[in-house]
From TrEMBL, chain A:
CDD domains: TRX_Fd_FDH_beta. It holds the Pfam family Complex1_51K. Signal peptide: none annotated. SUPFAM superfamilies: Nqo1 FMN-binding domain-like (SSF142019), Nqo1 middle domain-like (SSF142984), Nqo1C-terminal domain-like (SSF140490), Thioredoxin-like (SSF52833). The keyword Iron-sulfur applies. It comes from Zhongshania guokunii. It comes from the Bacteria. Gene3D superfamilies: 3.10.20.600, 6.10.250.1450, NADH-ubiquinone oxidoreductase 51kDa subunit, NADH-ubiquinone oxidoreductase 51kDa subunit, iron-sulphur binding domain. Belongs to the complex I 51 kDa subunit family. The keyword Ligase does not apply. This is NADH-quinone oxidoreductase subunit F. Keywords: 4Fe-4S, Iron, Iron-sulfur, Metal-binding. InterPro entries: NADH-UbQ_OxRdtase_51kDa_CS, Nuo51_FMN-bd, Nuo51_FMN-bd_sf, Nuop51_4Fe4S-bd, Nuop51_4Fe4S-bd_sf, Thioredoxin-like_sf.
From TrEMBL, chain B:
Residues 103-142 form the 4Fe-4S His(Cys)3-ligated-type domain. This is Formate dehydrogenase subunit alpha. Transmembrane segments: none annotated. The keyword Iron-sulfur applies.
Length: 517, 960
């Protein structure tokens, strides 16, 4: 019988040498005449084990990782092709690895199970069942489904997706658009990339559903140029989905139409902001637009447009297949369903952790992350990307919930969690926040354009002991000016991490000279 | 409670921050406790400004869409979070806005502090001192310190760009408000400017980091006007300081008739700033009107009257009295010797209505004949004939603003971006909103390259085949059932219509049959006809590419036919719109400059009209039409026409077949030229009377939309007299008394004698700003849109438009067709613009040749080309260009030495004698020296310049 061996093909695994490992395994199989089928699956999100090689056994898939090229010989010698080996890298049955087993994989249920581009595999794992359901519904009922599911925008703003859709549905226009925000630029985030690299049909299905719901027949995936692999996979997946009738002029024989294409960004963080994204998608310089008008009414090319994050759209096939209630049953408070957290930074077990809202940050970091990579005490954690506050230990018991985080001046954002051990200089981190804004500000509004540069300078003055008191007061006012005065969240949230450092890590903002004393 | 509905009542000098909302829904809100009702969609910033509450702002301007970048206009709104920018926040019913609270004040001050932390502190020596919005706003928000210091990152050492002759760009003063970029996009439509870099590195950039001069910038000045600091600043202000007073007047360049504020220091114009209250231009301008006014003080200005007995003699500087009596005596002598009809006068489309009126009155009343004509003879006379015949009035039917309601815009034989730039900007705005464009022109004009426009179609017809195209379009409309049957039935003459319909339905007018003549694919013609007829609102704009043909009048009537057949007449968004070349072409025609028509297009044979003039003028008038300009030339050569008074017109350069014109001028016993320069015609003159520029006189111009605008004197006439005063003196010297103290009195006389001007007076012009004629008891405030209810002739008259090919055909000797046009930076014969820095854009006329024709002849860019026609030969430099089809060559006529009219023939329009400038069969070959004519021209020019001693007291320096 043919033995199935899985070597992931996503960017993370490949950058850790997965291609060489796959080649070595194939070569060995050819030489030994072993009857294997090497499947380049997607990552299963257990990054600390990547490249994670899996072997199909009667008991289920067994994982080995992290495998280095130098380990391949040993693995083969230990009998990898026999399907059952004792090896130090063996992690046992994949499904039993606590990091994975304890998750609530809803959106990411298929993650890494098979070849991302295999339509057959997708269909065999509930693929396009949501779409089939959706095709039987009236647009208004589809929108109601999304409302009922409680889904909120996973890009970070957490705006109820159903309300956004209803606005677009109700708008009168000869043309409407679905735009997928795949400009995943937050530090420590990779969930969007995993969707596109490992389960691309899920995103396609979600976008087709969105299009049918609001009456849009054209979709664009605005993809950051730093994801070339995702581009190749999405492009190919679209071609195959079109050939199979899931995209195009006659979706599943329904007579309804939805076209889809991938558009590349040009390396600007600000183009993850929805209005700047639309400008860029129109071929213009990526500058933030003032709202109103809302993109839902005047979006791409001034037409009603749904701009949804990859994760919001990826949640739809489940919602439509299993029902809004099944999704809404998960989570807490007004945060319904699951959020795929992404553990990064100084973490022992980095990777994707999909959980229903409600567990505490500490559980996430400790039970899943396993603490810091260095083994040193954790000092701070930044949740929600570069614009999220740094949380001190006193806040780690906060449940992962939009409202609970808002209450402590923090954000969940896109679910990125970046951990820092006790060697971190939080003054440096505060400076970094301003510096990030210096580099990434679009330059349209004054508080962000000039304020961020002055922010770096003022922090430098504080840290070098120049009138630290006066400059701290100035920094405080600058933060307020940027929050109150900025046009978009870029300038408006840049002060959040800075303020959190001022509040919770004030010691690190003292002049360097003082602290050395 | 304050209500604002009438934008006319707004102060054009106040910037209300954001454009008006056109909604008819009204919203009531309270700003700082003051109740105000405004249209839905109005911004809070504008609503506040209307209520007299001035919210600080830097990036907002009411000619630009709200941008929301400076954040100074932040306010607080009850029930809303944070500090919304009032420019981007629309009003809502019941909204309670606070514009001055402590948190708002602090926010604004802190933002200003950021601005100033990256701004030079040289206010006292800054050219914008006293006219700087940044300075004003720093004052308004009470900025007292910059806690960041001035040693942080900054742009203070950014390099200046001085490449443009008229304005400088100093990025060290830039606050990156993007007003210049947005003005270039939204107001001008050129998209030459952008922001380069991002964040703190954001900087304004012309093109891809080009200099302004090397970029796509057309120097319209919109960016300079938009700049709130001295980043973009007129060099004249940098050199001379801020103006101290201003006068609103009307530009003397093209037929758009832009209103400007002449900003003055004493009697010196510091800068011309487009006036937002101007109904034709709404505060926009082009490089000519905005910057090219330095000719008015150029050293070449004729500063005193001069006389001579013959053109071989040196000019003699004399007093006004001597000159006038010399002229009068000569005229009388000529008439005594050769008869009453041996003299005549030519009025100018560059002079005011009042001046033009006086010249024709002089001819009719003092000369005693109807030998008056005007330069419209050589441009829009077919418009007068064609539109009067079909629609009953010799004028365009619309306002310029009407284009904003057009769905399909047809541009025929016109090049608005170069020749009518301010209207072109408005047209382009409409194209960006999605209106469809159809260009019928041998050349691929720039309008077809409008950034962000919707659908555009080009029908590149062969020169001379206009009538076939218009017939083919009409044929498609009629045979495909695209007519507006209701309009035709109710508004048009049934008999004429049926005759026309039968004619145009004939298969010989089908695009398929005519394809061979026009060179335009039949399918394109069909699509164009469908687009125009089905658009909803279809508007036609045309220029001299329509009129300056042997069938110019036929083509104008063909256009009117098409508009009537599709019902595209009589409301906003449609119409037939001649784009007038010069500032006062419409006016000079209206004022009775033609030999057959008294003011208001009243025929000289019309007893009722004529007797009205006779009793007012106290003379008996000739009831026979006089000589047209070409007739005058022919009669001069024949020896029966011996004296001519030419006001502000350079016939020697601008009229076709230069050799013929020159022979005619040499044959005159007395040529009186009244002009601001020693122009080409003046070189043949015996009396040279100094003219006055538009800056030196009072009067009115009438633009292409029949809009009468005031011209106001901002400086004394350089030689002491306004042009109308000179005509008055000449009349009195001839024994015909004229006694006017001010041009307003002349206008009163015009109003009294001209039915369509009955209601016009200077008082009403002051009150309304401008008036579109007809203005009379029926239309007391003027008539923006013509023919709304009926035509002046009752029913619209369809005219049969049989195509007759021009005799100016290509053959083996002259295998190419030459057509001519204008360029943005130069105006007409160039007398004005060549005496400004506009020369830097276009210092010589070149011949554009298609690569195919160039290849055949071994021609490369820059080669000297001899161009010969049946009329003559000249030499121009080559530019290989794909704007025309193979077989067509193109040039401009801005430089006298180019001799463009040496090659044009004396073929002309069958109805009006408008010359066939647009079609000349030529041959082109590489040569090594100027043509014989050019050598003669140069020698004659040098000799005449020697005979013209520089008058005493003329300054050496070139005026700015």
């Amino acid at each position: 019988m043919t033995l199935q061996i899985f070597v992931p093909s996503d960017t993370t695994a490949c950058s850790l040498g997965a291609d060489a490992i796959a080649a070595a395994i194939e070569l060995a199989a050819a030489q030994s005449g072993a009857d294997i089928e090497l499947i380049r699956n997607g990552s299963r999100g257990l990054f600390w084990l990547e490249p994670m090689v899996e072997v199909e056994t009667p008991a289920g898939r067994v994982a080995y990782g992290p495998v280095e090229i130098s380990d391949v010989h040993g693995l083969l010698k230990a009998g990898l092709f026999d399907g059952n080996v004792e090896h130090p890298l063996c992690g046992g049955l994949t499904e039993e690895i606590p990091f994975l087993k304890n998750q609530q994989r809803v959106t990411f249920a298929r993650l890494g199970l098979g070849d991302p581009l295999s339509l057959e595999h997708y269909l065999a794992h509930d693929g396009f069942r949501g779409l089939q359901q959706a095709l039987s519904l009236r647009p208004a009922d589809m929108v109601q489904q999304v409302m009922d599911s409680g889904l909120r925008g996973r890009g970070g703003a957490a705006f109820p997706t159903g309300i956004k859709w209803k606005t677009v549905l109700d708008a009168e226009a000869d043309q409407k658009y679905i735009v997928c925000n795949a400009d995943e630029g937050d530090s420590g985030t990779f969930a969007d990339r995993l969707v596109m690299e490992c389960d691309p049909y899920m995103l396609i299905e979600g976008m087709v559903i969105a299009g049918l719901a609001v009456g849009a027949n054209q979709g664009y995936i605005y993809l950051r140029s730093e994801y070339p692999l995702a581009q190749r996979i999405m492009d190919e997946a679209i071609v195959r989905a079109r050939a199979a009738g899931y995209v195009g002029a006659n979706i599943c024989g329904s007579g309804r139409q939805f076209e889809l294409e991938v558009r590349l960004g040009a390396g600007a963080y600000i183009c993850g902001e929805e209005t700047a994204l639309l400008e860029s998608l129109e071929g213009k310089r990526g500058m933030v637009r003032a709202k109103p008008p809302l993109p839902a009414l005047k979006g791409l090319f001034a037409k009603p447009t749904v701009v949804n994050n990859v994760l919001s759209l990826a949640a739809l096939p489940f919602i439509f297949d299993k029902g809004a209630q099944a999704y809404a049953d998960l989570g807490m408070g007004r945060s319904r369903g699951t959020l795929p957290f992404q553990l990064a930074g100084n973490v022992r077990q980095g990777g994707l952790v999909e959980l229903a809202f409600g567990v505490s940050l500490r559980e996430l970091m400790e039970d899943f992350g396993g603490g810091t990579f260095t083994g040193r005490p954790l000092k701070a954690v930044q949740v929600g990307g570069p614009l999220g506050a740094y949380l001190p230990e006193s806040q780690w018991d906060t449940p992962l919930d939009y409202e609970a985080f808002a209450a402590i001046g923090a954000v969940l954002g896109h679910g990125g969690v970046v951990m820092f051990d006790d060697t971190v200089d939080m003054g440096e981190q505060a400076r970094f926040s301003m510096e990030f804004c210096v580099v990434e500000s679009c330059g349209k509004c004054t508080p962000c354009r000039i304020g961020s540069t002055r922010g770096v300078e003022v922090i430098d003055k504080i840290r070098s002991g120049q009138q630290p008191e006066a400059n701290l007061a100035l920094l405080d006012e600058l933060c307020t000016t940027m929050i109150d005065g900025s046009l978009c969240a870029m300038g408006g949230m840049t002060p959040f991490p800075v303020q959190s450092v001022m509040k919770y890590f004030a010691d690190d903002l003292r002049p360097l000279a003082d602290r050395e004393r | 409670m304050i209500q604002y509905f009438d934008p006319k009542k707004l102060d054009p000098n106040k910037d209300l921050g954001t454009p008006p909302s056109l909604s008819t829904e009204l919203v009531s809100l309270a700003i700082d406790g003051r109740e105000i009702i405004v249209p839905e969609g109005t911004s809070v910033l504008r609503a506040a400004a209307l209520a007299g509450i001035n919210i600080p702002k830097l990036c907002a301007s009411d000619n630009l869409e709200a941008f929301g970048s400076c954040r100074l206009c932040a306010v607080q709104i009850e029930g809303r979070k944070g500090f919304p920018a009032s420019c981007t926040t629309p009003v809502a019913e019941g909204m309670q806005v606070s514009t001055q609270t402590e948190p708002v004040a602090k926010l604004r001050r802190n933002i200003m502090e950021l601005y100033i932390s990256d701004h030079p502190l040289d206010c006292l020596t800054c050219p914008a001192n006293g006219d700087c919005e940044l300075q004003d706003m720093a004052g308004a928000v009470g900025l007292r310190e910059v806690r960041y210091g001035f040693d942080g990152e900054n742009h203070l050492h950014a390099e200046k760009d001085e490449s443009n002759p008229y304005f400088s760009f100093d990025p060290s003063k830039c606050i990156v408000c993007s007003r210049c970029v947005r003005a270039c996009e939204e107001v001008q439509g050129t998209f030459a400017l952008t922001i380069d870099g991002r964040g703190f590195d954001s900087k304004v950039s012309a093109g891809a980091n080009d200099s302004f001069m090397d970029s796509d910038c057309v120097s319209c000045g919109a960016c300079v006007q938009a700049c709130p600091t001295s980043t973009l600043m007129e060099k004249s202000v940098i050199e001379q300081g801020q103006p101290e007073h201003s006068v609103v007047t009307t530009c003397a360049y093209c037929g758009v008739g832009c209103s400007f504020k002449a900003e003055m220091k004493g009697n010196e114009v510091i800068r011309m700033v487009p006036y937002k209250g101007g109904d034709a231009n709404h505060g926009h301008s082009c490089v000519k009107g905005r910057f090219a006014f330095g000719y008015a003080t150029h050293k070449d200005r004729v500063r005193s009257p001069m006389i001579r007995d013959s053109i071989d003699q040196p000019w003699q500087e004399v007093s006004w009295e001597q000159a006038i009596s010399f002229a009068a005596k000569r005229l009388k002598d000529v008439q005594a010797k050769y008869g009453r009809e041996s003299i005549g006068g030519i009025t100018s489309s560059r002079c005011t209505n009042e001046e033009t009126y006086l010249v024709q009155k002089l001819v009719r009343a003092a000369f005693g004949n109807n030998n008056t004509d005007t330069c419209a003879r050589v441009c829009h006379s077919p418009t007068g004939y064609g539109l009067k015949t079909t629609l009953g009035e010799s004028a365009g039917t619309q306002t310029f603003d009407s284009v904003m309601k057009a769905d399909c815009i047809v541009v025929i034989g016109a090049n608005p971006t170069d020749a009518h730039p301010v209207f072109a900007s408005q047209l382009r705005r409409r194209l960006r909103q999605g209106a469809e464009l159809i260009v019928i022109d041998p050349r691929k004009i720039d309008l077809l390259k409008t950034p962000h426009m919707g659908k555009g179609m080009h029908l590149p017809l062969r020169p001379g085949t206009n009538v076939t195209i218009i017939n083919a379009l009409a044929h498609v409309v009629v045979t495909e059932g695209l007519e507006d049957k209701n309009f035709v039935a109710t508004r048009c003459d049934e008999k004429a219509y049926q005759a026309w319909r039968k004619f145009i339905s004939e298969p010989r007018h089908s695009p398929e049959v005519l394809e061979e003549i026009t060179g335009v694919a039949a399918e394109d013609v069909r699509n164009a006809a469908r687009a125009y007829a089905n658009a909803g609102n279809g508007a036609i704009y045309y220029g001299l590419g329509v009129t300056e043909h042997s069938q110019g009048s036929t083509m104008v009537m063909g256009i009117a036919n098409l508009a009537m057949a599709t019902g595209n007449i009589g409301r906003e968004g449609v119409g037939v719109n001649p784009l007038r070349g010069q500032n006062n072409v419409q006016g000079s025609c209206d004022m009775g400059s033609f030999p057959h028509e008294l003011p208001g297009y009243q025929h000289v044979s019309d007893v009722v009209a004529r007797s009205r003039f006779e009793s007012a003028w106290g003379v008996v008038l000739d009831d026979e039409p006089g000589l047209r300009i070409p007739n005058m030339f022919d009669a001069a050569i024949a020896g029966s026409f011996k004296a001519l008074y030419v006001q502000g017109e350079d016939i020697a350069q601008s009229d076709p077949n230069t050799q013929h014109v020159e022979s005619a001028l040499r044959a005159l016993d007395c040529l009186i030229v009244q002009d601001i320069f020693l122009n080409e015609t003046a070189k043949f003159a015996h009396v040279l009377l100094p003219g006055s520029t538009f800056l030196e006189k009072n009067g009115t111009f009438t633009n292409a939309e029949r809009r009468i605008n005031r011209v106001r004197k901002v400086m004394p006439a350089i030689a002491g007299k306004e042009d109308w005063e000179v005509t008055v003196d000449l009349a009195n010297a001839l024994g015909y008394p004229m006694n006017y103290q001010h041009p307003s009195e002349i206008m009163d006389e015009i109003a009294q004698l001209t039915p369509s001007f009955n209601g016009v007076s200077y008082a009403k012009l002051e009150e309304q700003g401008s008036i579109q004629w007809p203005c009379n008891a029926e239309h007391p405030n003027g008539t923006p849109t013509m023919h709304e209810v009926d035509f002046p002739i009752g029913k619209g008259q369809f005219a049969i438009t049989e195509y007759v090919a021009t005799s100016e055909k290509t053959n083996r000797r002259f295998p190419l067709l030459l057509t001519t046009g204008r360029i943005l930076s130069q105006y007409n014969v160039g007398a004005q613009t060549r005496r400004t820095a506009n020369q830097q854009w276009h210092d010589e006329d070149v011949l554009e040749v298609h690569p195919h024709d160039a290849e055949l002849r071994g021609i490369h860019d820059g080669d000297w080309l001899g161009i010969s026609s049946r009329a003559g030969q000249t030499v121009l430099r080559a530019r290989v260009s794909e704007r025309m089809l193979p077989g067509v060559v193109y040039t401009t006529f801005h430089h006298p030495g180019s001799g463009a009219n040496v090659i044009t023939t004396d073929n002309s329009d069958w109805a009006t004698n408008c010359p066939e400038y647009k079609v000349t069969a030529v041959q082109v070959e590489k040569v090594s020296q100027p043509s014989e004519w050019q050598r003669q021209f140069k020698a004659f020019d040098e000799r005449q310049r020697k005979l013209y001693r520089k008058p005493k007291g003329a300054p050496e320096h070139v005026g700015r």
